Amino acid sequence: MRTLPIFDKITWINAVAGIILLCWQLIAGSIPMGWQVFYFVLMIGSAGIPHGALDHHVARASAAYAKKKFTIPGFLLRYVAVSFFYSYCWIKLPGISLIIFLLISAWHFGETDLHAAKKTWLWTLSRFLWGSLILLILLLTHAEETTQLVLRITNQSANAITILEFFKQSGIFIAVSILLLCTISIMIAHRQNHWHIKISHIANLLIIIILIAYLPLLPAFALYFGGWHAIRSFEIIFNFLNEQNHEAAPTPAAMWKNAIPMTFLAVVGFVFMAFIWKGTGLNMDPLPFIFIFLSVITLPHLDVMDKLINSKESQ
Amino acid sequence: MSPFFLDAAIAADNYVAFTFFIGTMAMMAASVFFFFELNNTEKEWRTSVLVSGLITFIAAVHYYYMRGYNLETGGDSPTFFRYVDWLLTVPLMCVEFYLITKKSGGTVGLLWKLILASVVMLVTGYFGETIYSDSSVLWGVISGAAYFYIVYLVWFGEVAKLATAASPAVAKANKTLGWFVLVGWAIYPLGYIVGTPGGLFGMPAESLGIGGLNMDIIYNIGDAVNKIGFGLVIYALSRSASK
Fold first, then answer.
1. Looking at CA atoms only, how far is residue A133 from chain B in angstroms?
2. A120 near A189, Cβ under 8 Å?
């Protein structure tokens, strides 16, 4: 597969930015909250949301590749319906919705990082374990902040408190177990079906993982999600659309530009969703709501990316 | 002295009245420009340029009254006049989409879809903002749905398809107009949300520095950019398509 250096450059620049943030924290004692929010908004706004803003192009190209019917109204309706349904679940069943969010995030992160591997059950397991490991690192290294955030997200749901207690007591054990399982799973899967990956990618990702463990939750999440995951997703999307000669991706810059309208619409949708949320009588501050919004748009996005990666695997 | 006359005094720090005044003059100047340019416009584009002139002219008249209302009431927001202005000008902007795509098959059905959506967007917005403010979320949802429907039609739906089929110049103009609808028009639902008490995560709009008075300034600048800009895109299209 053709790998464009531009995506690698961006993820390395993001790693350097993360190092600068860490140095700032070490020298000044902490990164001011204003700057944390600025970095978070910058990364989510410039990469996090835009990487999903091409979903309609990706879905159309995937459908064409699989010789299936595709219509924009049908796609948008399904996308919005899934988002609305999941929003409803967040209102009615916050604890269960949180578990779903963690599971889909784990799968999605793992699937993107190990997308080049073959579609075997061992690689499927490896993907899920790898994504879970990333998520656990993010959550366990920010246990206090995560606890506060989760309680705010779920409105002190009893289920969420049980989950948090469980992770507090056995989080390290689970993380080590998953690390071991993941390593074994990847090794066996790799022996059976060789996996091509650049050493520089592994080095880049390791640096980012180390950084997210030491940075505060907000920039840590932004660094992994916007600075790594979104850029790698952009690379996968670009390669796929380019192979299909899709007009949305003549160059990486043009592809990013093509993501701007839907990104803007997502931001308007975010404010709109917050407004509807108010109508439910639930009181919620912006930060937890941002995470809920991200989860709500991640669910249909996951389906789109899943189809893309599966269609590539079948090549 | 009646503030409905142009010689009514505007305090140096009254930025709201100042933007109403600037808005009036800008809309009026744009109208004169569009009307005078009609004679230099190819026949097939004259209606489009005429409609552009009508949009800015209607807005100029409303802005003149809104400026007076604002001064006479000591700074009240002229919500009623604003909605009347939008109710006349926004459907006309939708007419522009029909006019530019007519050659490639734009139907009267499409015209009515756009007009209906814009009327629903505005009337329900007015209900939510003024008459039934207790159920502003419900009216806001209906109004927002109509806005998203117009965005859909222009960016992905019939309008986009017809514009692409018409010519590269029309496709390019439609894309620019699409940006006006997506970004320019977004300030209205966002303004509605911010203006609804507790609409933005329960935070008072004043705490964000975007209270009632400032919203008037945002609307005034937004209106001028949207209406004059919209007309200029149509004007530019009439020139490039005639070459």
1. 33
2. yes
